[in-house]
Specification:
By secondary structure, this protein is an alpha+beta fold. The chain is 29% helix and 23% strand. Strands 3-23-22-19-18 form a five-stranded mixed beta sheet. It has a five-stranded mixed beta sheet with strand order 13-5-4-20-21. It comes from Neisseria dentiae. Pfam families: CP_ATPgrasp_2.
């Protein structure tokens, strides 16, 4: 893969890319100090709204304001529609895959995905086997992480099907853009994102099969890194935010305890990981979940979004097979392609990875949030040696990929305006009749010079993503 960098705002000759003209003029017409002042105002707005996340890697679990960068990332609308089609295709296939592995297992019988990678996967939930959902949708809300490589093409970095987060940052970031950049924002047609909470609620209603279901958002509590988002979405949808102790199961029905008595719950938008959902089915020491919830779910008396057991489909060891899933279930060629991936469980791949650790990115198959990674070119000899021992001790637990040339976007940093690496997380809603994607998603930015890790927990920030209607030929 090419190692050249793709600048999202400017082409190689220094001219603004299509759709980026107004932002380029704004940057040229303002001093870096003035832009830095706007950036600080944006951070203050985030602080006042309490838009925070928690850094679990630090002993004190410090709660921080999410860094927001005032310079937007621009994508032309026709280019976005291709991404939208690719994400929708991918999610359709992944939902079919999850249904299949908990039922007939056709793809395993066909020899396309090894049974061992499914049946012994930590995210595979035997409780889900044989459940016939009213609509075979498991990943109702998904976040597909995309990067643009130096060749100008988009690639899927990973699929997030469990409890994907970040949509609140997308929505709050748009409010800041409209407030602090009214002239440049209003000078072009930027597709809206503020209807996402309504889209989400409509999707949850559709999946319930009822006209007026009782919906709740289940949170593990305020110490969770995404708690701000849990509260934000519950408020925007006008539904209760609940903890496990607010719910009870009786006669295989779920109820919420209120001051006026019990009310039956039809849909649970859970932001709680599988092991903690039900102490009778999963971890017996969990005090976050709801005892007997899985019994109510198996009886068909409550919808859980996303469904338990979806994590097996976004495991990094299963990720290399998504292209085959699309061909197998949809009889289509993938619109979006994966990053080339080495599976350390395979002898030849393991040998290659161990010989090239200094130039690869190695990830835990169950990892998330940027934790547990090795970025070979940025690591010391000792770090590489220590990581080698981890891989050798458990090859099945790791995959490796080439070090990618993530695209860059001008970003407001201490030194002034400088390019920083970015990715993109569109948010995909899967309903009974259609897949819907809000036009934009969350652009994450690695604020440290040279860093390729965009996760907020690893020092990354976020940008607003503008999908702009333009005139002229595609890029």
């Amino acid at each position: 893969m090419s190692s050249a960098l793709y600048d999202e705002l400017f082409s190689s000759d220094g001219t603004a890319r299509r759709g980026c003209e107004h932002v380029a003029e704004w940057l040229a017409g303002n001093k870096p100090g003035d832009i830095a002042t706007l950036n600080q105002q944006a951070l203050t707005m985030f602080y006042r709204k309490g838009v925070t996340f928690t850094v679990y890697s630090e002993a004190s679990n410090i709660e921080r304001v999410i860094p927001f960068d005032i310079i937007p990332r621009i994508i032309a609308a026709d280019e976005w529609r291709a991404l939208e089609a690719g994400c929708a295709q991918r999610i359709r296939a992944l939902n079919m895959f999850i249904h299949d592995i908990y039922h007939e297992r056709h793809i395993i019988r066909a020899g396309l995905v090894p049974a061992a990678q499914i049946m012994v996967n930590d995210c595979y939930q035997p409780w889900m086997y044989g459940i016939n959902l009213p609509h075979p949708i498991y990943a109702h809300i998904s976040g597909i992480d995309l990067i643009r490589h130096g060749d100008g093409q988009y690639y899927v970095l990973e699929d997030n099907l469990r409890t994907p987060s970040g949509v609140s940052y997308m929505l709050e970031g748009r409010k800041i853009s409209e407030s602090l950049l009214p002239d440049v924002f209003g000078a072009q047609k930027v597709l809206p994102v503020d209807h996402y909470p309504q889209m989400l609620k409509e999707n949850l209603v559709a999946c319930s099969g009822k006209d007026d279901p009782n919906i709740v958002v289940l949170t593990p509590g305020r110490y969770n890194s995404a708690y701000y988002e849990h509260a934000f979405l519950a408020r925007e949808m006008g539904v209760p935010l609940v903890h496990g102790y607010d719910l009870l199961v009786e006669d295989n029905y779920v109820y919420i305890k209120t001051v006026t008595g019990r009310q039956r719950v039809d849909v649970i938008y859970r932001r709680l990981d599988d092991p903690f959902l039900d102490p009778l089915a999963f971890r017996p020491d969990s005090i976050l979940g709801v005892p007997a919830l899985m019994s109510a779910y198996r009886a068909g008396n409550v919808v859980i979004c996303n469904a338990p057991g979806t994590g097996v489909a976004d495991d990094k060891s299963v990720y290399p097979y998504v292209g085959d899933m699309i061909r197998f279930y949809l009889s289509e060629e993938p619109i979006l392609h994966n990053v080339p991936t080495y599976q350390c469980r395979k002898k030849e791949d393991l040998s290659y990875v161990l010989s090239h650790l200094h130039e690869l990115v190695v990830k835990e198959t169950q990892g998330s949030g940027g934790y547990g990674m090795l970025v070979g070119p940025k690591s010391s000899k000792q770090e590489i040696a220590d990581y080698r021992k981890r891989i050798e001790a458990d090859p099945d637990g790791f995959i490796a990929q080439p070090t990618l040339a993530l695209s860059t976007c001008p970003t407001c940093v201490e030194e002034g305006i400088a390019p920083r690496h970015i990715d993109l997380r569109p948010f995909v809603l899967s309903g009974p009749d259609k897949v819907r994607i809000v036009p934009g998603g969350l652009t994450r930015v690695a604020l440290h010079e040279g860093s390729l890790v965009v996760n907020s927990s690893q020092g990354g920030g976020v940008k607003d993503t503008w999908i702009v209607e333009t005139e002229g030929e595609p890029l």
